[in-house]
């Protein structure tokens, strides 16, 4: 049985999210958006999906000349650049199309679904250029952002180090002042950076590294903590054409994302890598959060896309695979496995995870576009840990179900679903693990400053009111509001605990909070679907699918919130206080 690879996302579902639900036409020409989505779907299928298996098999290699990646990756990114998609979200004065982030996110989702490893290069490049455009000097923008916006150069983010990982306070890369030139204050960088996606390759004219480092004090010592971090632009090739003192010490060989060259970089093995300071000393982490938060939404979006494609592949397989007979029927021909209740249950779970994840990320993309509105900014800050984590966890769950539906075939490399699972398994880890996002949500976003909670509660209550006015949705909203009340009660208990004990079960709290958020996202979609014109059969089926997926989420997923909160409310310290010797 041949596996279909011509469907990446549901075109109707993308239209539903952009137009019917999020009303992108209120701020942007709808025809332009549709043209961009059509173009993205075609390019993704023709040039990204076409080397999906090859990029997994032919990993990047390292020799004396640097890192070499699959040539088809460079060809695909050339088509991406020719279409202007690197530039899509940038202002016209920077050579961009000034498209909203929502349209760019919907476009990117197609490329991530087709080949997330290749899509990682433009994702990082656009975020790199956006940071420089926001915080760099005019000369830095001209020299380093514009070539990336044009898709001629690619970019990276160099944060982690071998000894530090996600603990950025432990960064040891140092930056020694080295005068000043037309690009600003120049420094010499020395240190090692680990897990650098796109850290080296042979398909772009240059690579712009954004490097977090510390400037030593007058005593020569590096400052403690993250307050001493500064941000530097350190290109692979300097403006005069000379090679910068940046070398690849090795490649990391990952389980998935194999087409993305992942490097250990050494800065300053000789005289020090030249880097130009962005903004002022000590502002590096604040600046880098712009890129990190964009990357977190993009990681969630990529995870949603991977889960979505596995759902579509599962659906087609279940419709074609003949096996077994209905319960109670002993004779006759085998039926397609989609007729078996347990397969339909798995498909409905996949649909709820994949479509819910995509909708959440697109909603957050719309909040990015409303950056001038303080309430939207506050709500985005609160939801970002969920947008990164929930799709990463449950997009992966959709991939896992896809293998189960495919049975033994799903466990073979001939079918894409095993690679989709491997690719997606990275997403709960990078750009901040699930545990780190849980600490961020509970600590920084809620217990330290819970000002966005009333905004989210108002959204939930408004959706509940609309749902209760629709006959086929009546009865769903109370369970969502009850789950939210349980979240509030749990937070009251946590606020009364000593700080060192409040985070013992931060991750179960994140799971519970995320499920309530997705319950709201699904109710929003169901309300919109219920109001669609269902005179056409295909439209009626689409609307019924949305409503049924919402009901399935409320029936099968929302009840999990109570169980997760039990451990949080009980203050279970079984794990936190377990002696190391017991492991």
Overview of this structure, please?
The structure is a single chain. It is globular, with a radius of gyration of 24 Å. Among the domains are: 11-149, Acyl-CoA dehydrogenase/oxidase, N-terminal domain (Butyryl-Coa Dehydrogenase, subunit A, domain 1), CATH 1.10.540; 154-282, Butyryl-CoA Dehydrogenase, subunit A, domain 2, CATH 2.40.110.20; 452-571, no CATH class. Residues 1-6 have low confidence and may be disordered. Helix content is 54%, strand content 11%. It has 583 residues and is of the alpha+beta class. It has 17 helices and 10 strands. The protein has helices at residues 11-21, 30-48, 52-57, 71-82, 101-135, 138-149, 284-320, 341-369, 374-406, 417-424, 434-447, 453-468, 477-495, 499-502, 506-530, 537-557, 560-570, and strands at residues 61-63, 66-68, 154-158, 174-181, 184-197, 207-214, 229-235, 246-251, 262-267, 273-277.
């Amino acid at each position: 049985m041949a596996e279909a690879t011509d469907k990446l996302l549901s075109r109707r579902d993308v239209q539903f999210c952009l137009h019917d639900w999020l009303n992108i036409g209120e701020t942007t020409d709808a025809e332009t958006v549709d043209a961009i989505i059509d173009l993205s779907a075609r390019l993704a299928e023709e040039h990204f999906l076409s080397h999906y298996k090859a990029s997994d098999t032919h990993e990047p290699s390292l020799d004396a000349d640097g890192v070499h990646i699959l040539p088809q990756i460079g060809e695909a990114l050339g088509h991406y650049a020719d279409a202007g998609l690197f530039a899509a979200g940038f202002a016209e004065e920077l050579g961009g199309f000034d498209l909203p982030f929502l349209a760019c996110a919907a476009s990117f989702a197609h490329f991530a679904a087709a080949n997330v490893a290749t899509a990682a290069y433009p994702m990082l490049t656009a975020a790199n250029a956006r940071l420089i455009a926001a915080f760099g000097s005019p000369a830095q923008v001209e020299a380093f952002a514009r070539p990336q916006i044009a898709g001629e150069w690619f970019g990276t983010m160099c944060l982690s180090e071998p000894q530090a990982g996600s603990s950025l306070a432990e960064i040891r890369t140092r930056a020694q002042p080295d005068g000043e030139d037309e690009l600003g204050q120049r420094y010499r960088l020395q240190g090692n950076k680990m897990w650098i996606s796109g850290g080296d390759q042979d398909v772009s004219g240059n690579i712009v590294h954004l490097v977090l480092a510390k400037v030593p004090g007058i005593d020569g010592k590096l400052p403690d903590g993250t307050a001493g971090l500064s941000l530097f632009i350190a290109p692979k090739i300097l403006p005069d054409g000379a090679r910068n003192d940046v070398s690849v010490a090795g490649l990391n060989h990952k389980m998935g994302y194999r087409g993305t060259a992942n490097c250990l970089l050494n800065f300053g093995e000789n005289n020090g890598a030249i880097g130009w300071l962005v903004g002022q000393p000590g502002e590096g982490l604040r600046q880098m959060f712009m890129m990190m938060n964009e990357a977190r939404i993009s990681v969630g979006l990529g995870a949603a896309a991977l889960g979505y494609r596995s759902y579509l592949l599962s659906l087609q397989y279940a419709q074609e695979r003949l096996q077994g007979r209905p319960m109670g029927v002993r004779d006759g021909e085998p039926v397609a496995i989609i007729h078996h209740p347990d397969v339909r249950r798995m498909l409905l779970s996949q649909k709820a995870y994949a479509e819910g994840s995509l909708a959440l990320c697109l909603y957050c993309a719309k909040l990015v576009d409303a950056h001038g509105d303080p309430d939207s900014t506050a709500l985005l800050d609160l939801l970002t840990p969920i947008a990164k984590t929930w799709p990463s966890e449950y997009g992966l769950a959709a991939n896992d179900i896809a293998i189960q539906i495919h049975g033994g075939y799903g466990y073979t490399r001939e079918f894409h679903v095993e690679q989709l699972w491997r690719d997606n398994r990275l997403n709960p880890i990078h750009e901040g693990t699930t545990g780190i996002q849980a600490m961020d949500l509970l600590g920084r976003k809620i217990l330290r400053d819970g000002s966005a909670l009333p905004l989210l509660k108002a959204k939930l209550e408004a959706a509940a009111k609309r749902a209760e006015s629709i006959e086929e949705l009546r009865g769903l909203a109370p369970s969502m509001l009850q789950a939210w009340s349980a979240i509030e009660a749990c937070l009251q208990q946590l606020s009364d605990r000593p700080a060192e004990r409040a985070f013992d079960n931060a991750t179960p709290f994140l799971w519970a909070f995320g499920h309530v958020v997705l319950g709201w996202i699904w109710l929003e979609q169901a309300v919109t679907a219920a109001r669609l014109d269902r005179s056409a059969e295909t439209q009626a089926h689409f609307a019924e699918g949305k409503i049924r997926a919402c009901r399935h989420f409320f029936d099968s997923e929302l009840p999990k919130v109570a169980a997760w909160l039990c451990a949080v409310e009980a203050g279970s310290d079984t794990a936190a206080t377990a002696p190391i010797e017991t492991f």
